[in-house]
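Structure in, sequence out. Go:
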């Protein structure tokens, strides 16, 4: 009867188990590095997409202005929906960051919408809901024209605005 030592002596050569584990880990590492690496131009935008992103920034600026207008017309709404307005502002900030040519200043299209005005229907909550739904539709439609992070951002904002619409109901 031969006796094998309980622990094999380390001779500097890999064991069969460490070799098999290493071979099994290599494909996983290759996939992870491929997913986290960025290919040149992978999330580049065309000039038309730059314009589309600028338009989406304007849509979100109009929504932020709509919150301010609704809050001025209905202070009780401001108390109930301040978090939603903060979310809309945060979404606007993320859109500005994603749009290569858009700066922090309002565009001509959004500056006219940002001016406070009386609620057309006299119901600030209903008008705000309509603005939220319109912005969600716009972002969802624009999402289809992009790939990668910008598509995910627009889709996420659209979904978030759908949730806001439900909360405002």
């Amino acid at each position: 009867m031969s006796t094998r030592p309980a622990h094999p002596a380390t001779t500097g050569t890999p064991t069969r188990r460490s070799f098999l584990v290493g071979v099994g880990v290599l494909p996983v590492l290759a996939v992870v590095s491929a997913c986290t690496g960025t290919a040149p131009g992978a999330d580049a935008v065309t000039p038309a997409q730059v314009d589309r992103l600028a338009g989406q920034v304007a849509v979100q600026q109009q929504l932020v202005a709509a919150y301010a207008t609704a809050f001025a017309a209905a202070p009780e709404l401001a108390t109930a929906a301040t978090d939603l307005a903060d979310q809309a502002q945060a979404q606007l900030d993320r859109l500005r960051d994603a749009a290569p040519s858009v700066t922090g200043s309002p565009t001509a299209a959004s500056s006219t919408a940002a001016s406070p005005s009386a609620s057309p229907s006299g119901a600030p909550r209903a008008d705000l809901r309509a603005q939220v739904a319109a912005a969600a539709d716009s972002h969802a439609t624009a999402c289809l024209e992009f790939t990668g992070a910008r598509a995910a951002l627009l889709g996420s904002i659209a979904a978030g605005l759908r949730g806001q619409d439900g909360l405002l109901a």
